[in-house]
Fold this sequence. Notes:
The protein has helices at residues 3-20, 65-78, 112-122, 148-158; strands at residues 41-48, 51-58, 94-101, 105-106, 125-130, 133-137, 172-176, 178-182. By secondary structure, it is of the alpha+beta class. The strands form two sheets. Strands 2-1-3-8 form a four-stranded antiparallel β-sheet, with helices on one face. A four-stranded antiparallel β-sheet has the order 4-7-5-6, covered by helices on one side. Helix 1 (3-20) packs across helix 2. The mean pLDDT is 95.
Amino acid sequence: MDSTILFKIARESIKIYLISGKKADFTEVTKVYPQLLQKQGSFVTVYVEGNLRGCIGKIEGDGPLYKDITDNAVDAAFFDTRFMPIRSEEIPKLHIEISLLEKPKRLDYSDEDDLFTKLSAKKEGVLLQFMGRRSTFLPQVWEKIPTAQNFLKELSYKGGFPKDIWKEKDCQIFTYSASVLKED
């Protein structure tokens, strides 16, 4: 897929929402790019001058990709509760990253050491699921948290779980790969 159209959708979605408070409709784009109608997990990450300002997405797409990119871009820029919303003067300094996710696969492991070894070997995205709640880190988070044990602790913390939730027998761990597209 041509990443240029994905970045255009994300960037224009942010600009349009900033001006109007409404989400853009890119339905017409699907006539030229029908692959945007597929369902696929995606995340949009927004940086301003190299600093993370929002990251929102869906592990498995629940609508057409163009719509999920629109929603994720707006939500990352304005509704990620960890950050202040993007301001108009920040638009020229904005950098967008889009991650297109493969379907998560359950990771089987025998013990904690086996889990750490398997996670460290692949450095894929990780999804923790426990009692109906989920928490995920994209594969690129390994660049900031390179050890499996710390990765899982931070992921547990992010999800509001105890720091060693992965030790619980009912905790499920999934991994997934992602195509990470970075805006030029």
